[in-house]
Amino acid sequence: MGMSKIDRKTISTGVNYASGSSGLLPQNGHVLHKNVINFFQQVDLFENSTMKDLKGTFDSPKRLKKYLSKSLFFIHHASNDLGVTFEVEMKKKYSIDTYAKLLIKELSKQLQRLYTLGARKFFVSNVSPLGCSPYSINTIIHSGPCVEEINKRVSLYNDLLPGLLENLQSSLSGSKFVHGDIYKVFQDVFESPESYGFKDVNSSCCIDKNGTRIQVCAPNIDPCEDRKTRVFFDPFHPSEAMHFLWARRFLKDSSICSPINLIQLMQA
């Protein structure tokens, strides 16, 4: 995991397994990058590395079990599966209905693995409207403000997610699964951006090497100065301000969390 010996001694404060361009399926994510740690590999790391280090910080298996049962596991996946990976690789292999069910099946498998390893509190977010990203709206011919073909694809997956989490909670004793609706957060911002402090909802803040604002950010070029009022930092990823907004709403806003909000989950 690239952790130092000092980091491993403080591992109980939390570990981030995020990997850029990763996906739910084993083969996903490698379209853009070779060294991608997909979700099943992230769970492997938790099992094979983190768990070993955690055991050394507790004086009994009972205390470790209690610690894990109180810990929060935040899962945010499937954006890359439903975005560029589907367009480049999976579109010719699967219908979107079949593909969405395949993603849900893999997510279920890994969540159950985490439960077996001791996890009990899960906060699982859905996927944002990818058809509204600067890259999508500037590279795909469409009508309306967003590429609805992509958003419908995302919605098929998102519609399956709440049922999965409900089924897992009913079948896994002592578990608590909370669904976070990132898609709705974006919808709310798009409908009334100024009420959330945004002025630009559909353009990239950073500039690529060709000056098109549809590719990754160019090195050594300053981004826009008004990035706090932008929904997107680059053509694919939301800005820090947008991340802060949905984190804040997840904490207390039960209109985008089900069946409880994030603070209630942490206190449960």
UniProtKB/TrEMBL annotation:
Gene Ontology cellular-component annotations: extracellular region
Subcellular location: Secreted
Keyword DNA damage: no
Cross-referenced PANTHER family: GDSL ESTERASE_LIPASE 7-LIKE, GDSL-LIKE LIPASE/ACYLHYDROLASE-RELATED
Protein name: GDSL esterase/lipase 7-like
Pfam families named in the record: Lipase_GDSL
Protein's UniProt keywords contain Lipid metabolism: yes
UniProt main location, coarse: secreted
Family membership: Belongs to the 'GDSL' lipolytic enzyme family.
